[in-house]
Amino acid sequence: MMGVGINGDNSRSALLTVGAEIYKEWSLESSMVFFTEDYKSEDGNGGKVKTDSDVFFFTLAPVYTYSLTQNFDVYGKAGLQIRRANTKTVFSGGDLKKDQKHTGTGSDIGYTYGFGIQYTTTQPIFADSRLRVRAGADWHKGFNGNDGVGTTDKPVFGFQAGLTF
What we know:
Distance between the termini: 11 Å
Structural class: mainly beta
Order of helices and strands: EEEEEEEE
Strand content: over 45%
Helix content: under 10%
Shape: elongated
Number of strands: 8
Number of helices: 0
């Protein structure tokens, strides 16, 4: 499935999810989340700070699906994630005679969990593939307690569509 997400800071992300049924209501899914996070602030002395981060999450989670009707399901998932962020920060103004630029990368391992609802068509769209549309909320957290760029207490609300095989 492919789709878009709305992050806790109202930025947008691109989502890609692949998965496989393991046993009856259980499946295993892997998702990739890509987004850019921008942050601006002032230090109170006329100085400004601008941070741009490119963030990538890779998740792997077992998913439990409960059928509400023939077409509608609710699901819940919990699993592991890897986060990678490339950050560029520019300090300007205030006591500085020229802009100072800092770049860095960060990565860590954490956990993810989420839930949502999905609709799957009854009739095949192509061969034996059916269209699936999903709406859900996912949280991404770091194990180290010092959550980094892209991790927050706010969920990523995702909307995805794809084919089942």
